[in-house]
Amino acid sequence: MSASADNIDFMIHGLFSFQLFGQEVWITTSHVCIAIVMLVLVIFSIVANRKIAHATEVPDTFQNVLELMVEKLSGIVENNMGSHAPKFTNYICTIFVFILFSNISGLFGLRPPTADYGTTFALGIITFALIHITKWRHQSFKRIWVDMCSPLPPWFPLWLPINLISEIAVPISLSLRLFANVLSGTVMMALVYGLLAKIAYVWPAVLHVYFDLFSGAIQTYVFCMLTMTYITQSYGDEE
Predict the structure, then answer these.
(1) Residue 162 lies in a domain
(2) What's the total number of domains in the chain?
(3) Which range marks the domain in which residue 190 is found?
(4) Which parts pass through the membrane (predicted)?
(5) Please, is 195 exposed, middle or buried when counting C-beta atoms within 10 Å of its C-beta (0-12, 13-18, 19+)?
(6) What is the rounded distance in angstroms from the CA atom of residue 147 to the CA atom of residue 162?
(7) What own/partner pairs with CB < 8 Å and gap ≥ 24 does 29-34 have?
(8) Helices (DSSP H) in 82-209: which residue ranges?
(9) Interior CA angle at 38 toward 112 and 177, to 5°?
(10) What is the pLDDT of residues 182-226, one digit of tens each?
(11) Which residues sit opposite 26 in a β-bridge?
């Protein structure tokens, strides 16, 4: 068992480094996997764009799949964000597709980019920035101050530090939830292949269906749903 355990590997590895502005920068396996996922998505987008540009009245299978994807994703955004949906549909759909493809990339022998906290934290920071840009554009300073002091009156900001912590925790909780769930699946599959390599031929496919497909899709949906909820709430009582 100890000999097999030596083959277990679910860590991020540095491939090569270079100097940038006097600092050593490493290119890791996560960067390579992100590049592969992005390349696949770019190629898919170009092909899809060409297909839609020459769409036929009677769609073939690929055109049907594209239209179904756009319709379902747009419907999810519209149902959750209402009149604000047009401003954020592109962003939500983009991160949905990126996270989903990243999560299921383990099926193709890659280490999921979302199993690297650097990836999920970056997504959380982007969402965090959108939340507060939207809030400051659509709410007055007075309204924001009252909310930050809630549930006490604004002249007694006892709860201000606690509410500030809860605001700062948004990108951390978003990113950690996605990262931890994807990483746990990656670790489990590494353990299966490392410790049970002699008998891991067909049955691990069932685990891949759960950890990569089912759990990956669920975590993608949860991240996007929370993103839409936070952004919608940042509009306040505008409507």
Answers:
(1) yes
(2) 1
(3) 2-233
(4) 25-47, 88-111, 117-134, 178-197, 209-231
(5) middle
(6) 12
(7) 29/111, 30/111, 30/113, 30/116, 30/118, 30/119, 33/102, 33/105, 33/110, 33/111, 33/112, 33/113, 34/102, 34/113, 34/119
(8) 85-104, 117-138, 141-149, 160-195, 204-208
(9) 40
(10) 988 888 877 777 777 677 676 667 777 777 788 889 999 999 999
(11) 17
CA angle (105, 107, 110) in 5-degree steps: 50
In a domain, 30, yes or no: yes
Beta carbons of 107 and 213 less than 8 angstroms apart: yes
| CA-based nearest residue to 75, from 55, 89, 59, 91 | 89
State the residue for tokens 């590049």.
Answer: 35
Per the domain annotation, does 110 fall within a domain? Answer: yes
Q: State the Cα–Cα distance between residues 144 and 135, nearest whole angstrom.
A: 8
- The Cα-based distances of 80 to 109, 125, 229, 232 in angstroms read 35, 21, 7, 8
Looking at residue 154, what DSSP letter applies?
Answer: T
Q: CA 33, CA 198: separation in Å to the nearest integer?
A: 27
pLDDT digits (tens, 9 = 90+) for 39-67: 999 999 999 889 888 877 777 888 888 88
Measure the CA–CA gap between 200 and 166, rounded to whole angstroms: 44
Token digits for 196? 């049970």
Positive or negative, the CA dihedral 31, 32, 37, 38 is positive
Cβ contact 98:90 at 8 Å: no
Q: Which of 107, 67, 72 is nearest to 93 (CA)?
A: 72
Confirm whether 239 is domain-assigned. no
